[in-house]
């Protein structure tokens, strides 16, 4: 009995030490990214949330079963080695997810590993995506076209050229910070956590996640279009002041509220469909 208690204390310690040693470079990269990239400034919160979710399952994790396997651990090491040899820090860092789950599967078993799948995989939201410049450029183009179209519906005469919107002789540059990427990452993070916590069917959760991307893109385009509307009526300075002071947080809240409205609609549809 004493040996079992000792093992229960040693394996988490070994997991922590091995992870820190192998992924020290990744941790440095993550820390720098969280401090310098606005889209990932929330990165500090993700490990805390993951740890809290794991802590809630600590009673389940204290046991062990016979369904142990080294395969996932080996997969994590393979991805890690490929990332090291290719210099792909993103790949090296992502390998931490199968590495951690693989260690649990190897030493504790499949039941404990399944409990940790979401908390560990949730760490992906703290890891910056590769080719951020390309992603932002694509989103800039989409936001520019969308904002121009919405502004026409609002009665604002405008046109676009690349990532620039032309209106009454003024030029509005849809910069990377205006691409909506920050809102997309934040919204996906929140909605994914919401989908994990709510007791609704898997289909409803999938619908929420699918709706997140177009909803975030649309609200960002609407934000830019309303900036053009304010600028056309009250001047460019007023439009930019609106855009920077409270436009971002307002439309993020609108997008988040829309997700909750969609959730309630799905629940209502499910409720009436089950009535005799």
Automatic annotation (TrEMBL):
Give the organism, scientific name. Candidatus Syntropharchaeum caldarium
As one GO molecular function, the record gives:
peptidase activity
* NCBIfam families with a match to the protein in the record: 8TM_EpsH, exo_archaeo
Transmembrane intervals? 12-31, 37-56, 77-107, 113-129, 174-199, 206-226, 246-266
**UniProt name for this protein:** Membrane protein containing Exosortase, EpsH, 8 transmembrane domain protein
Q: Which UniProt keywords apply?
A: Cell membrane, Hydrolase, Membrane, Protease, Transmembrane, Transmembrane helix
Instruction: Name a single GO cellular component.
Output: plasma membrane
Question: Which superkingdom is the protein from?
Answer: Archaea
Report if keyword Magnesium is assigned. Answer: no
